[in-house]
Amino acid sequence: MSFSFSDHSHRRYNPLTNNYVLCSPHRAKRPWQGAEELAGKIEMPMYDPKCYLCPGNERAAGGHSNPKYQSTYIFENDFPAVQLSQPELAEDLLFEEGEEELVRLLKKKLMRVRSVQGNCYVICFSPNHSLTLPLMTRAEIVEVVQAWKDLYIETQRKAVQEKAPYSYLQIFENKGLAMGCSNPHPHGQAWCLDVVPTEVQHEFDNMAAYTKKNGSHLLGDYVALELAEKKRVVVANDSFVAVVPFWALWPFETLVIAKNHIASIEDFSEKNKEDLALILKCLTTKYDNLFKTSFPYSMGLHQAKLGATEEEKKNAWFHMHFYPPLLRSATVKKFCVGFEMLGEAQRDLTSEQAAARLQELDGETHYSSA
Q1: Which of 25, 84, 336, 340 has its CA 20 to 30 A from that of 71?
Q2: Which domain covers residue 291, as residue numbers?
Q3: What start-end ranges are recorded for coiled-coil regions in this protein (predicted)?
Q4: CA-CA distance, 38 to 33, in Å (whole number)?
Q5: 64 catalytic residue (yes or no)
Q6: Please, what is the average pLDDT of the chain?
Q7: Binding residues for UDP-alpha-D-glucose
Q8: What pLDDT was estimated at residue 43?
């Protein structure tokens, strides 16, 4: 018997995070008796008078109402995870009066804390309460991409010209109850911090190390490899390619990567915006068509930090991560527990198997309108 990637366990290296993923494709054959998500299509109205994101409605915190916006709309989050104004964190706050010198010494070694400042935004994709990205037109998604670009440029301007405590803008979307989305109105978020978040910094460090070692960019080389092999490519156009990455953790995880070097969305041309909108619509339509359900996911943009130096821009490369939790059907979700929490990341089907499933799906006609 010879080794088969489709039948035998193996580990796959993720160069972006410098970690391994345990791949156990034979486990997908086991019977499932665990928890299942609720299935079925939920009909949404175009406008919900109780929704705090719909045009003209009062927001969740009260005291403010949304304008009657006609396209993508951004406002500062009423319940921000980070704040611009807060008391200064004193260095000795962890220490208590009268505590033993040994405790104080150990705290200095083991307990490290720092203040963090920033701002958070809500990005309403559309005034239509019933839409999700796959149900929006390409023109409507272009407006979302433009809103992302405008927010990046504006926060960068504040960081550079006004010395605002902004270093990185993390734009993301949680879609669906399975991903903890608290409001079905189509929207995403953006958290702007005075530091680069840990996951993003790991990518910057590993991409820089790859360039130093190989004289080329990690994601540039990876795009060339995927386009040559075509095994894991889900959809591609002139500007972007969406793949199930070789090192994927989530069952139908995808990575949308700029084909050519683009440090951030600030550098997008009109063609780039159109192409990203097209690939997002196609990919998310395929997701919905996979299990005939509104497919949940967490999605986020990774790009250059705000006010990046030329060297930092060279190391950055615009890409987007999609992390969907569904494993076997609209009701069976993957959980990162047990070995994943105590050992290392693990998945139950190969990236090639997942890509093949997505490749064969229609990316233009949505199942609900077929």
Answers
A1: 84
A2: 43-81+119-369
A3: none
A4: 15
A5: no
A6: 92
A7: 27-30, 60, 77-78, 174, 180-182, 189, 334-335, 339-340, 346
A8: 79
